[in-house]
Write a structure and sequence with these properties.
Strand content: under 5%
Order of helices and strands: HHHEEH
Largest sheet: 2 strands, antiparallel
CATH architecture: Up-down Bundle
CATH class: Mainly Alpha
Structural class: mainly alpha
Helix content: over 70%
Strand order of the largest sheet: 1-2
Number of helices: 4
Radius of gyration: 19 Å
CATH topology: Four Helix Bundle (Hemerythrin (Met), subunit A)
């Protein structure tokens, strides 16, 4: 007899996603810390080239894109969509970040590109905290005995 492969039920898929949340949140925390370090290096260092930092930022953007798509696929479309928007804004704003760029240049005021990067960074920090909370909630509901 031929067996028909079935798609996992929503409940089993959500359970699997719930088990992946702590790992995804930990990787995202590490990614965000390294993104901060890369931007700090780019804005404060006087090196001739920042190819390693920019390569890392590209890899971090790929990971955050993966997280946004995973959110959409697991029924959190609004959060995934806002994450894609934040990532797009940060990618757009990144072009203006360079040596000596700070929050506010006295004469020019705050740059919109810089603000887009900071808003995107803040969004993903908040999203990571939410992922940790979801993971904790999922774990506590599995551990809690049923009445």
């Amino acid at each position: 007899m031929c067996s028909i492969a079935t798609r996992p039920t929503r409940r089993s898929a959500d359970g699997e996603y719930g088990r992946r949340l702590p790992r995804d949140a930990a990787v995202t925390i590490a990614t965000l810390l390294l993104v901060f370090a890369a931007f700090d290096d780019i804005t404060t260092d006087r090196a001739a080239s920042f190819s390693v930092e920019y390569a890392f930022l590209a890899a971090a953007a790929l990971w955050l894109f993966f997280i946004a798509v995973r959110l959409i696929r697991h029924g959190r479309g609004l959060l995934g969509g806002v994450s894609l928007l934040a990532l797009t804004g940060a990618a757009w704003g990144q072009r203006a970040i360079g040596p000596g760029v700070v929050w506010s240049q006295r004469a020019a005021g705050p740059k919109p590109e810089y603000m887009a990067v900071m808003i995107g960074y803040g969004w993903f920090c908040a999203l990571t905290l939410a992922m940790l909370w979801w993971a904790w909630r999922e774990r506590s509901s599995r551990v809690r005995p049923e009445d």
